[in-house]
Amino acid sequence: MIALITGITGQDGYFLSQFLLERGYDVYGIVRRNSNRKMGNLDLLPNRIKNNIHIYDGDITDTNFINTTLERLKPDELYHLAAQSFVAYSFTNPTFTYDVNIGGTLNVVNAIKDYSKNIRLYFAGTSELFGKVTKSPQNEETPFYPASPYAISKLAGFWTVKVYREA
């Protein structure tokens, strides 16, 4: 099985990559290009694990990159963890937050539709979707009430994935 992880350098990507490798997956990850070649949390992995992860340098906001990656790799599973996830920064730069979280997610689902229809997609949500909660604990019937540009962008991603899945 081939798994592709966007946002592999974050906390969840760190744990998920190890989990999938232990289960015999071929693990590929997308790492946003940076001049110092930092790998985020993956730098904390022992080399015996890190050396088994195949890295693509790219950006989920680059439509051509996402299309080419899915067309060539044809993964069985895609874990879409990549996001601009800092709530406070989403107020400072909402355009960037929307570009990454909405535009990047749209690129992913369009690439799946066009190049890899049989893929299984996991979209990482957030409790921020609930924002100003009216009851606790939240469940599947709790209404969404996003309270930041980050939460709004993740809600748009949630609905984008849902609409594409159902279509």
Notes on the structure:
The structure is a single chain. The protein has 6 helices and 5 strands. With 167 residues, it is an alpha/beta fold. The protein has one domain (2-166): Rossmann fold. The chain has a 5-stranded parallel β-sheet with strand order 3-2-1-4-5, sandwiched between helices. Helix 1 links the parallel strand 1 (2-6) and strand 2 (26-31). Helix 3 (63-73) packs parallel to helix 5 and helix 5 packs parallel to helix 6 (149-166). The protein starts with a strand and ends with a helix.
Secondary-structure map with pairings?
Elements: E1 2-6, H1 11-22, E2 26-31, H2 47-50, E3 53-57, H3 63-73, E4 77-80, H4 87-92, H5 94-115, E5 120-123, H6 149-166
Parallel strand pairs: 1-2, 1-4, 2-3, 4-5
Helix pairs in contact: 3-5, 5-6
SSE succession: EHEHEHEHHEH
Q: Could you list the spans in which at least 5 consecutive residues all have pLDDT below 50?
A: none
Main pleated-sheet profile: 5 strands, parallel
CATH topology: Rossmann fold
- The chain-level structural class is alpha/beta
Strand content: 5-15%
Strand order of the largest sheet: 3-2-1-4-5
First-to-last CA distance: 26 Å
Radius of gyration, CA atoms, in whole angstroms? 16 Å
Question: Any idea what the shape is?
Answer: globular
What would you give as the CATH superfamily? NAD(P)-binding Rossmann-like Domain
> Please, what is the average pLDDT?
92
Which percent bin holds the helix content? Answer: 40-55%
What is the correct CATH architecture?
Answer: 3-Layer(aba) Sandwich
What is the total tally of β strands? 5
- The number of helical runs is 6
What is the domain total for the residues? 1
